[in-house]
Amino acid sequence: MGEREKVVEDRVLEVLREWEEYARRGNWRPRGYRIIRGPAGNTKVGEEREEEFMVVYRPHGVLYHHSLGKVSKFFRGLIEGKLYGTRCPRCGTVYCPARAHCWNPSCKAQPTEWVELPPSGKVHTFSIMLFSAEAFLEHLPFVLGYVQIDGAHTALPIQILTSPTHVWVGQRVRIKFREERKGELMDIYAVPVPGQEPPKWSCLHADAKAMEDLRRDLEKTYEFLQERFGITREMVMKRWEAPGE
Amino acid sequence: MTKVAVVGGGLFRPDRVRYEVAEEGVAEAYRMLLEEVPELDPRDIEFVQCSYFSDHLNQQLCMSWIVQDYIGHHRKPGYRVEAGGSTPLDALINAYFLIKSGEYDLILVVGWEWMSEVDTATTNEFIAAASDTDWDFTVGGYYNGYYAALEVRHMQLYGETVEDLGRLAVRNRNNAVHNPYSQWRSEHGTSYVTLDDYFKDRIVAWPYRRWNCALISEGAAVLLLASEKVARKYSDAPMWIEGVGLGTDSMRPGDRLVDWPYKGAYPEDEERYPSFVERPLTPYPEMANFGFAREAARQAYRRAGITHPVRELDLAELFAPYDGVELCLYEDLLWCPRGEGKTMVREGTVMRGGELPCQLSGGLTAFAHPVGATSLLQTLFLYWELAERIPEKFGDPKLQVSGAEKALLTGHGGTGCQGGVIVFSR
């Protein structure tokens, strides 16, 4: 660290200690191997011959320190329980996700100003996740939403905590803050404003067969959660009750 | 300026796992090319255009240097391009520009990807590292989630159904069983599947089931590109590049609600925006369509003199890592008005035997998707199609479009962040 930089707040020491251990584990150096007999050669399907290959197992773990740049305020805001966007003083576009410079070509990369946004918005589009990458398996099933925060012109990616069959385009949501926050988008989630019914044109609700199949496969996700993590259906449903502001 | 043609190619059969490594796979694909084109003296190749997507997947940077020396083409000029899923298309277009400029007459385009050296979840994570890691990445949807959300938006605005997505999934598989180099055939065998089978398949990210999603593959492809001056020396049936186009859109799909550069560019598409939902500041493409494809198609059609794409094109290989992408692309490629993509599926236009069959190879969900090689594999397939050599190459005439003269290829990366279109002719 240079003379002109100073740590203003430090929430990383424990993590650094944890990662030291990974560094000592010999990144990149093979930790073991397998000999595998498998199909080889450049042929059509089914015409391969077999050959033996040695497969080495090499670890690779890294801890990045990445500046969030001029939109750091957005992520610090999450820790403080506030939702910020940026506004272009020339064309008035409000960005959430925040941009430090306006992307409207006629504004010539005009620096933007911070605005505080309300914890509410509407679902622009969504996906219902029944399978995910390792880091998010325990969150299944979850709704990935693109939510347009009230007052913003863009849509923010955010998890919507709701029964997976209770979501639609245009649904009104409230933004909530998790109790433990780290300055990332997972610090917040959306919950539907109570008392709404899906409109007749909702693509999921208008298609009875689609809904039936979704319910069937949700069952399989619950079975998976129970088996892999001991997470019961009741525990999952409890998440949707959206505790406190 | 010279014309440019594809005059040969080869592939290393893609599959979920291949134990030969990338440079060995490339060498095998290169050998296939050399056997195909005995007139080719490796010393005549002037430039090697390399194409691979990820430095993370194999713990190796500058893989192209390994590959180029492995096949004995070091000392010559050569470099890699990289742009996510658009990588092989960009490599092809770059080689085209290099020849077009008059600088080179003969270029070897080499593409590969080895995607199974980490577990599936990590592969998905590394692919998702090509999305905005400060924003989109962090909420856990990854590409399955992003593309599913894009499809929900299009579905909501324009009324296609899960069944339409199923028709495409079934079509891709039932084409791929006739492609002896396809991953689906390797995993599944040669029997046909039905819409009922599709509905039994697991949903991963609604509205997408596993069958709607691109495969994870290891494989390679090479193509030989030549100027007009030397093309006939290598091929009796060169496939000419008649026109290319390129386009881009925002990195984060959620930003496309206020996609300023697109504002007012396509008034007809803005007009076809339904009134039952709130209208974003820029209604086209927003999160429902692919603006890059519209830009690229207009340039490619203009250069190739295409005015009625559905009538003039005989087949197409699209970059559709998820089936809904196709429905949008039909609209963005100006094959039908916005919102009518579903009609092209329902009327069979894009099916085998239809007016403009797509994904006869099986596409990204049933042929294979070794990212850096994908568009090259599709191009090689089109090369065999336009030369009417599918029966010979596949030992099965089923996928041959007889008398095919013009074909379209499109590729893209991210959620349609960057991509292009190429029109080929025999």
How would you characterize this protein structure?
The complex is a heterodimer of chains A (245) and B (426). Chain A folds into 3 domains: 13-57, no CATH class; 69-117, no CATH class; 120-239, no CATH class. Helix content of chain A is 20%, strand content 26%. Chain A is built from 4 helices and 10 strands. Chain A has helices spanning 13-24, 72-80, 208-229, 233-239, and strands spanning 32-40, 49-57, 83-87, 94-95, 113-117, 120-129, 142-149, 156-160, 172-177, 188-192. Chain A is an alpha+beta fold. Chain A has a 5-stranded antiparallel sheet, with no helix packed on it. A 3-stranded antiparallel sheet of chain A has the order 4-3-5, covered by helices on one side. A two-stranded antiparallel ribbon of chain A has the order 1-2. Chain B starts with a strand and ends with a strand. In chain B, helix 1 (22-36) packs across helix 2. Chain B has 17 helices and 11 strands. In chain B, strands 3-2-4-7-1-8-11-10-9 form a 9-stranded mixed sheet, with helices on both faces. Chain B is an alpha/beta fold. The radius of gyration of chain B is 20 Å and the shape is globular. Chain B has helices at 22-36, 63-70, 87-100, 120-128, 142-158, 162-176, 183-188, 195-200, 228-234, 267-271, 291-304, 309-312, 323-332, 341-346, 363-366, 374-386, 390-394, and strands spanning 4-15, 47-51, 78-81, 106-114, 203-206, 208-209, 218-227, 239-248, 315-317, 406-413, 418-425. Chain B has a domain at 4-118 and 217-234: Peroxisomal Thiolase, Chain A, domain 1 (3-Layer(aba) Sandwich), CATH 3.40.47. Chains A and B meet through strand 1, strand 2, strand 6, strand 7 and strand 8 of A and strand 1, helix 1, helix 4, helix 5 and strand 5 of B. Strand 6 (120-129) of chain A pairs antiparallel with strand 5 of chain B.
What is the element layout, followed by pairings?
The complex is a heterodimer of chains A (245) and B (426).
Chain A: H1 13-24, E1 32-40, E2 49-57, H2 72-80, E3 83-87, E4 94-95, E5 113-117, E6 120-129, E7 142-149, E8 156-160, E9 172-177, E10 188-192, H3 208-229, H4 233-239
Chain B: E1 4-15, H1 22-36, E2 47-51, H2 63-70, E3 78-81, H3 87-100, E4 106-114, H4 120-128, H5 142-158, H6 162-176, H7 183-188, H8 195-200, E5 203-206, E6 208-209, E7 218-227, H9 228-234, E8 239-248, H10 267-271, H11 291-304, H12 309-312, E9 315-317, H13 323-332, H14 341-346, H15 363-366, H16 374-386, H17 390-394, E10 406-413, E11 418-425
Parallel strand pairs in B: 2-3, 2-4, 9-10
Antiparallel strand pairs in B: 1-7, 1-8, 4-7, 5-6, 8-11, 10-11
Helix pairs in contact in B: 1-2
